[in-house]
Amino acid sequence: MVMGMMPLDDVKVIDLTHYTAGPFATRILSDYGADVIKIERPETGDPARMTGPFYEDKPGLERSGLFLFLNTNKRSITIDLKTEQGRDLVLKLATTADILVENFSPGTMDALGLSFESLNKVNPKLVVTSLSNYGQDGPYRDYIGNELNLYGMGGSMIGAGNVDYEPVKTAGRMVNYHAGYVAAFASALGLFSVEENNEEGDHIDVSIFETATHSIDMRLNRLMGYQYSGKLAGRQSQASAVGSGVHPCADGYFLITGGARFIPNIIRMIGMEELLDQEEWSTPEGRAHPDRIDEFLPYLIPWTIARTKDEIRIEAEKHAVLGGPMNSIADLMENEQFVARGYFEEIDHPETGPIKYPGYHFKLHREEGEMPKRKRAPLLGEHTEEILSEIGISAEEISNLKSAGVL
Amino acid sequence: MVSKNSSKLPLEGLRILDLTVVWAGPYATQIFGDWGAEVIRVESIKHFPSTTRGMVMRPTKKMVSQIGSLSAYPDRDPGDRPWNRVASFNAHARNKKSMTVDMTNEEGQEIFDELLRISDIVIENNVPVSMDRINVNWERVSKVNPNIVMLRMPGFGLDGPYADYRTFGSHMAGVVGHYSVMGYKDESPDMTGNTLTADAAGGAGAALALAAGVRYRRKNGKGIFIEIATAENFASYLGDGILDYTMNGHQQEPLGNRHIVYAPQGVYKCKGEDRWISLSITSNEQWERLCVLMECEDLALDKRFDSELARQKEHDFIDELIEKWSLQKDAQIAMHELQDSGIAAGVVMNEADAFADPHLESRGFWEQLEGVDTGSNLYTSTLWTTEELERSHKWGPPRLGEDNEYVYKELLGFTDNKYKEFENKGHIGMDYDI
Q1: Domain carrying residue B339
Q2: Contact B223, B129 (CB under 8 A)
Q3: B57 and B14 in a common domain
Q4: What burial class does residue A369 get, using C-beta atoms within 10 Å of its C-beta: 0-12 exposed, 13-18 middle, 19+ buried?
Q5: ipTM tops the 0.85 cut
């Protein structure tokens, strides 16, 4: 049950996205209260439904963890976009909507008769967000993209990993998720122009290559730093300053980040403050000398391996040392901070039963109280009749459309 | 952005008080500034924000020469005002303004109240204890201006046992389990680098939260207080991995650059120093085309490689085969040849590649901006483009206190005498006085 007002609870989103990046965008909009109508292909639906991980490792349309995670709060309608009647239904839905988000390859919407111009004609206020690998124009427009090569081209992959090895991919689907997050914000700004500035709906073009170049990881800094210093950042070992690095400890590893200002804190944390009296350790310049890095390890490592990740974290907090435990997902689920704040949310589903999901990205401190509970991801076509009847399609028409294979 | 037809930018007319530090918060206000909001960085000449305007206030030339590119200075020279010259600040500060006020005393608090009264949004991403020291919290802010939207985004949230734990993106990544799924197969985690994606996620999330907050204000007739725990915000970027654990008890493991289903997939060495190409084969047809491209057609129909499962089994062998081919190739040429064969591939681009890339160039992704303390540099443009607006920045990163006159005199209406008095009292200045 939705309690009180949510920022986007009077916003309707037509969701023509599939797989990862697009559904992440509309998922976030729904978290802010938007009514997201997910249009899926009849019978097979969003291909993410058949992408793992699967509940109990058994594939099935309603068993994909990826799909269940990405599509909470949404309603599902099946429409065959390649039929004329199907296209007309989308145009009709578009007349009642505020935002349309799609992530087909560039040119597909035009081929389906759903170009920005035709959408704009039926609803001049509609914001249309197109999310694609390389954007709607430019020489790479029709190149294929995926998580790995987009991270490599746009992100910080050249700086990720060990200097003696090949560059290494970041975890999971981060490049796609991040592009989706940006697309959600872009859509909200499009709506802003319509509502606050009384503009017509604009066509927004989000390129994953660009969102990665612009923001994943430390890319922005590196791009500026390269211009200043002429140096390619490349892959650096963690141990770029005294105390920095991923250090073994009693129950795993602990990451410490140094940097000039924090080195004395690290030295104090391990009880070696007498070092600071020695000449080469007494000045920032002295401590920044590369030789200090290796000299310090014989003091540091015995200290870390005698302690657990939790114990080191508490010491780090006490001494204003920047660092963090290298947790597993299992550690995260039991992490005292995440548990104390009630981050994880349990969501029931007919196929999986109640499962814990990552919680909200944000917390609205509203007078109306707690954040609303999210609804589980929809079954394929679960809301087809409901959605069509809302736009005035009769039960008889619906059954005709069904037998014609449009739904 | 500029409008092609004199319409307003989406966020024109919104004023943001920006108390953000390091990267996640500044990234949010960067995006807001890019899209038309007036972003005023509220800084202090009595407090040097380490890692925001440089690691240390006045690094020596020698220190600067030892620093990596992340906090580089133009021409490796810290200059007279190093805090205006450091890459890690200038990378996110374009289109913003900077004013200074010492909020540790009563007078500074009153000046901040005046600013709150004329602003729409206030944002900060400090460890909560730092904000307590200068009395920045929702109770105070909303009392002064009930219509304001406030966003606080400390690393771990405002409550709980980690609330006052200082943290960077790389440590939040550690806490949420990022490094347990990133890295080389069968290698210990100390072989993996540092990752700060939590900050990027925080910036995008905070920007959206502010836009949602402003819409809520319009509907509800009063301001709202929004909290983002940057680590919580980022944990969702591992969403499907988390569900694999909560559904099935599986702890996903690092696969290096390989794919759990498709094969081959990897990053392969090309001709030259530190040059690499990534590629992924997701069907038998693509495999056959790769074999043709590598001039080993006989393998295309070889039973040992005729399915994903079969190719997974022979992945090491296939990797060697591909690298034999890629080592002879220029990375750029390899990318175009593979893409022309319908195979997902990309150069692992270093900084020089990005600046030289014809696709980014053709989409107007770079913009040249001048700065008094920085010289002329290329800046990334907006995060996306639109039909109606054209990519364009207003100005480069602001120098510390650069907009004091504008803020104190034009916005707050203080007289020249009062301005001088504030200068003498350590509120106003362009140099740190510590």
Answers
A1: 265-356
A2: no
A3: yes
A4: exposed
A5: yes
